[in-house]
Amino acid sequence: MSSTEQGTSSAAPAEPTTAPESAAAPEVPESFYYVHGKDKVVHKVSAGALQHSALIHGMISNLGYTEEQAKANPFPFENIDGDILQMVVDWCNQHKGKPTPPEDTNLPKQKEKLFDLVLAVNYLEIKELLTYCCKQVAMMVKGKSPEEIREIWMIPTDAEDEAAEKEAKKRAGKEAAGETAAAAGDAK
Amino acid sequence: MSSIIEMPELVLENIIEFLDFRSVLTLRQVCRDFRNFIDDLNDLKLPDSKFSSISWIVKNDIRMKFGTDGRLYRFVYSKSDNSRSLNGKKAVLENSNILDVAIRDLEFVLKFQKSTLREFHFLDHQLSNNLTFPNLHVKLGSMFKKLNRKIKTGVLSMESDSQSGFMSILPIADAETLETLALFPLDVNMDIEMDEIVKTEQWRKAKYIFCNFYALNMKVEDMCDFPRLYLKWLSISARDLDFLKKVLNIKLKN
């Protein structure tokens, strides 16, 4: 009890020195980190915005980078396309420190982009955005027939699937045969 | 390009949670991978079907009806030609046991039902000496055991010709949500043993009870806690009658 009182009393003298209008500004200067995708385009993102990504948040808190170190070592996400990473960064910036709305209608309408975004967001562990994306993916097929779903979600039929598997096996078989033939040739 | 099939399981689970019963049913038909994935999914990951009623009527065939007020699914499972029909569309199932198919479908429906049903009807019109589906209750019992979940319903109505028939369904109803319990015999002049039924949590917790047969082997003490009860007895002893009078007097005074 006494310690908290002491705390407030010691903080009190500092108050007059800070201007009232700057009181709303964050006390700690914001730190920034850098990320890039497959296209190597580097994005500067604040730690606050990156909080949405459990993966990046975990990396940051373990590293303890200084500003210079962060700039020199951008996080490489080679598995994410540049435009998709841009979408993710934009979303994180827009929703920085804000409670996320129950719905997000600002997601890509093009299904290929949406699927890529789902994979990226799942990898980066951005829970809310993943929920919105999954909802949008689900809504695409609600009330549709099996054939329509197959088309919308680009699902191969079981027959196509089996044919593709056979083809892959054949190719693998050929390659193996080729290799053994080459090895036999080497031996000669 | 990313295909939906290559999505991680967690993502697919998330997507399926946003669908509804009908869409998941359709998705099962799309391809083998989806069918297996859905069938292996934990009940918790399935969307709530929010049906208001489920009913089963067993006679020469099995009729299952379920849905909401707006949309009803009507299944008929016929043993004579080993077929299943949905809303009049018939399909012959060559190598499957029709009872197994019907029970599997019921299990599937129950897996989606998370909210409380308004009513659950289970009417077994089969006579004990002439059973079209002799293993019905054994197979149902093992399905309920596998489901490992109580059915939340406000009304439970059952028809059977024996206590064991009633007892194969009664314990799977969630006693917390059960308000009305209706037991029908195949014939109103039938008498049915009650000793096991009155011991159930469902009997004790229900608010309204209706038994349209002659109840045997139960005490008056088992029936004085209900706001409303309809019951027939063949005979009543002077002691029991006296007890009932006293209970009623106390209730009327209050």
TrEMBL record, chain A:
<dbReference type="InterPro" id="IPR001232">
    <property type="entry name" value="SKP1-like"/>
</dbReference>
<feature type="compositionally biased region" description="Low complexity">
    <location>
        <begin position="8"/>
        <end position="25"/>
    </location>
</feature>
<feature type="domain" description="SKP1 component dimerisation">
    <location>
        <begin position="127"/>
        <end position="170"/>
    </location>
</feature>
<dbReference type="InterPro" id="IPR016072">
    <property type="entry name" value="Skp1_comp_dimer"/>
</dbReference>
<comment type="pathway">
    <text>Protein modification; protein ubiquitination.</text>
</comment>
<dbReference type="Pfam" id="PF03931">
    <property type="entry name" value="Skp1_POZ"/>
</dbReference>
<keyword id="KW-0833">Ubl conjugation pathway</keyword>
<feature type="compositionally biased region" description="Basic and acidic residues">
    <location>
        <begin position="165"/>
        <end position="177"/>
    </location>
</feature>
<feature type="domain" description="SKP1 component POZ">
    <location>
        <begin position="38"/>
        <end position="96"/>
    </location>
</feature>
<dbReference type="InterPro" id="IPR011333">
    <property type="entry name" value="SKP1/BTB/POZ_sf"/>
</dbReference>
<comment type="similarity">
    <text>Belongs to the SKP1 family.</text>
</comment>
<dbReference type="GO" id="GO:0016567">
    <property type="term" value="P:protein ubiquitination"/>
</dbReference>
<feature type="compositionally biased region" description="Low complexity">
    <location>
        <begin position="178"/>
        <end position="188"/>
    </location>
</feature>
<dbReference type="Pfam" id="PF01466">
    <property type="entry name" value="Skp1"/>
</dbReference>
<dbReference type="InterPro" id="IPR036296">
    <property type="entry name" value="SKP1-like_dim_sf"/>
</dbReference>
<dbReference type="InterPro" id="IPR016073">
    <property type="entry name" value="Skp1_comp_POZ"/>
</dbReference>
<feature type="region of interest" description="Disordered">
    <location>
        <begin position="1"/>
        <end position="25"/>
    </location>
</feature>
<dbReference type="GO" id="GO:0006511">
    <property type="term" value="P:ubiquitin-dependent protein catabolic process"/>
</dbReference>
<feature type="region of interest" description="Disordered">
    <location>
        <begin position="160"/>
        <end position="188"/>
    </location>
</feature>
<comment type="function">
    <text>Probable essential component of SCF (SKP1-CUL1-F-box protein) E3 ubiquitin-protein ligase complexes, which mediate the ubiquitination and subsequent proteasomal degradation of target proteins. Regulates cell proliferation during embryonic and larval development.</text>
</comment>
<protein>
    <recommendedName>
        <fullName>Skp1-related protein</fullName>
    </recommendedName>
</protein>
<dbReference type="InterPro" id="IPR016897">
    <property type="entry name" value="SKP1"/>
</dbReference>
TrEMBL record, chain B:
<protein>
    <recommendedName>
        <fullName>F-box domain-containing protein</fullName>
    </recommendedName>
</protein>
<dbReference type="InterPro" id="IPR036047">
    <property type="entry name" value="F-box-like_dom_sf"/>
</dbReference>
<dbReference type="InterPro" id="IPR002900">
    <property type="entry name" value="DUF38/FTH_CAE_spp"/>
</dbReference>
<dbReference type="Pfam" id="PF00646">
    <property type="entry name" value="F-box"/>
</dbReference>
<dbReference type="Pfam" id="PF01827">
    <property type="entry name" value="FTH"/>
</dbReference>
<feature type="domain" description="F-box">
    <location>
        <begin position="1"/>
        <end position="54"/>
    </location>
</feature>
<dbReference type="GO" id="GO:0045087">
    <property type="term" value="P:innate immune response"/>
</dbReference>
<dbReference type="InterPro" id="IPR001810">
    <property type="entry name" value="F-box_dom"/>
</dbReference>
<dbReference type="InterPro" id="IPR040161">
    <property type="entry name" value="FB224"/>
</dbReference>
